Amino acid sequence: MRRLTAALALVVALGPTASPAAQALEPTADVFQELTQGLGGDPAKMTEALARGSTDPSGLAAALSPRTLERLRQLSIKISDQRR
After folding, report:
1. Where do the domains of the chain lie?
2. What pLDDT does residue 28 have?
């Protein structure tokens, strides 16, 4: 987790010049942190939740905080706008 935190700090330091892929690291880390906390750190449960999320995205979204959902929405918009 320490390496991930350091990588995220670097991405944040890059600011708006960071690639969309790099910008995705921070909200992705939030998703994993929330899943880890919500599922008691059980890797099997986390894997199962992520697998279910591929077929039931709203179910996975229900397990996330409003802050994380908003960050993911903003990232989605940014990526979509860059493809146009």
Report:
1. 2-83
2. 84
